[in-house]
Amino acid sequence: MEADKITSPIRIGTRGSRLALWQAHHVADKLHEAGMEVEIITITTKGDLVLDKSLDKIGAKGVFTEELEESLRNGSIDIAVHSAKDVQSTIPDDLELLAFMEREKVHDVVISFNPTFKLGEGPQIIGTSSTRRRSLLKRFYPDIITSECRGNLQTRIQKLKDGQYDAILLAYAGVARMQYDHMIAQHLSLEEFIPAAGQGSVAIECAKTLAFDKKNALREVLNHNETYFCLVAERAYLRTMEGGCSIPSFALATLEDNKLNLRAGIISLDGRDLIVEELTGTTAEAEAMGEQLANVVLSRGGDRILKQIREEKA
Ligand SMILES: NCc1[nH]cc(CCC(=O)O)c1CC(=O)O
Fold first, then answer.
1. With 0-12 CB in 10 A as exposed, 13-18 as middle and 19+ as buried, what is 189?
2. Is 1.10.600.10 the CATH number for 238-313?
3. Nearest CA to 134 among 297, 243, 246, 48?
4. Protein residue closest via CA to atom 11 of ligand 1
5. Beta-strand relationship, 10-14 and 38-42
6. Which architecture does CATH list for 3-101+201-223?
7. Is the ipTM of this complex over 0.85?
8. Which atom number of ligand 1 is nearest to the Cα of residue 55?
9. Measuring CA to CA, which of 137, 178, 283, 295 is 20 to 30 A from 118?
10. Ligand 1: which of 46, 64, 83, 201 to mutate, most ligand atoms within 8 Å of CB?
11. Torsion region of 204: left, alpha or beta (phi above 0 gives left; psi -120 to 50 gives alpha)
């Protein structure tokens, strides 16, 4: 079936945060350009409701995805749109990731109302809810005090405005998409702050039972091949590390001249123990590279860090 032969509107399921809606509209625009009718359906997830707990304490996997996945199963939506970073490393058997959209810049940024703010200059309180960012801050800026900062981007920026922190750390992608660029005080280097697997890309999920022709038409319009291979590698790494967002692991794949490069690692919660390894291969090896690199990281001390994190959390 060609795109122009799909007659009923594609029902796009999304969370209700402004960033989620931006992503859903981004998908809708692409499908529309390709001649498809679309409908956006907003669904509230547990991650949107429970704002007083750190993500690693809510515990359940897929706090931002569960309700959307239920809607895919019962057929009330055709596709679910997620920040790729928020999608569990293993998705349920009856669902599949249909596409990864072209990535935005992948790095983290410092957001502050003080335009001359720089990390590490004097005593500072930094808001972040990510164990990865917290651990990396402790390593590279040992004098910094980190403080929980959850909620959607608007909520976090409001907390910053209220004076709860001197600055907060966010992914550039969300900041750019919400047009908060003017509040960026510092761009963090990819050498030190390796992003979380999937950061900056939008993932499209569907039920395996979605009509074959519909899947093909959607994939054709929404998938970005280069991004796809990078995310396959990063997500294979995450899965093999037994990731989940509570583990401070990170992975960044890049593709240049048909060579896939994967840099990934893990850091202890106190920031003292950092392991970063790197691998180069072909796009056909993306999945295997992720698995292999995870095993290298595990064998070079990653298993020790994971064990220590599990003990600290227990
Ligand atoms: N877990 C929250 C989340 N999921 C995706 C993004 C940012 C945009 C992206 O990486 O696609 C964010 C916020 C952040 O980390 O700043």
1. exposed
2. no
3. 246
4. 200
5. parallel
6. 3-Layer(aba) Sandwich (3.40)
7. yes
8. 1
9. 178
10. 83
11. beta
56 is catalytic: no
Segments of the chain assigned to CATH 3.40.190.10: 3-101+201-223, 108-187
Considering the domain delimited by 108-187, tell me its CATH architecture.
3-Layer(aba) Sandwich (3.40)
Contacts of 77 (CB under 8 A, 6+ apart): 11, 12, 13, 41, 43, 68, 71
171 touches ligand 1 (CB under 6 Å): yes
Residue with CA at minimum distance from ligand 1 atom 7: 174
How many angstroms separate the alpha carbon of residue 84 from the centre of ligand 1?
Answer: 9
Catalytic residue, chosen from 29, 48, 86, 94, is 86
Q: Which atom of ligand 1 is nearest to the CA of 201?
A: 11
Residue corresponding to tokens 């963090």:
188
pLDDT in tens, the chain (314 residues): 555 567 789 999 999 999 999 999 999 999 999 999 999 999 988 777 766 665 555 555 677 788 999 999 999 999 999 999 999 999 999 999 999 999 999 999 999 999 999 999 988 999 999 999 999 999 999 999 999 998 899 999 999 999 999 999 999 999 999 999 999 999 999 999 999 999 999 999 999 999 999 999 999 999 999 999 999 999 999 999 975 557 899 999 999 999 999 999 999 999 999 999 999 999 999 999 999 999 999 999 999 999 999 888 77
In terms of C-beta density within 10 A (0-12 exposed, 13-18 middle, 19 or more buried), how is residue 179 classed?
exposed
83 CB under 6 A from ligand 1? yes
